[in-house]
Amino acid sequence: MLRMEAKFTIGQVTRHRVYDLRGVVFDVDLSFSEEEGWRAITMDKRLDKEQPFYYLLAECGDSSYIAYVPEQNLVADVSGEPVKHPDIGELFDVDDGGSYHYRGRIFQ
């Protein structure tokens, strides 16, 4: 049995390796779990389903949304800039140092 571990943690800020997308991790799938949506996510044959996928409260420019991103496309964001997603307060408390602490609430 293949054992995987997630590189990023709940509350960690990440950014996309290529695109202007950054966000706070709020959930992790240790491997791709949305079989029906696989083709919609990518046509890239190099993308492996057997890797962690992350749900992010994401921002890109002036837009915010929920993103589902494979680990291979993410890096840690070390900018220290806050993520300006309108739902941050639903899931996280933010301390004075800018760290996100998961509260475990579910979207309504």
Automatic annotation (TrEMBL):
Keyword Transmembrane helix: no
Translocase listed as a keyword: no
Keywords of the record: Stress response
Database matches in InterPro entries: Hemimethylated_DNA-bd_dom, Hemimethylated_DNA-bd_sf
Domain (Hemimethylated DNA-binding): residue spans on this chain: 5-103
NCBIfam families in the cross-refs: yccV
Protein's name according to its UniProt entry: Heat shock protein HspQ
Lineage of source species: Bacteria, Pseudomonadati, Pseudomonadota, Alphaproteobacteria, Hyphomicrobiales
Gene expressing this chain: hspQ
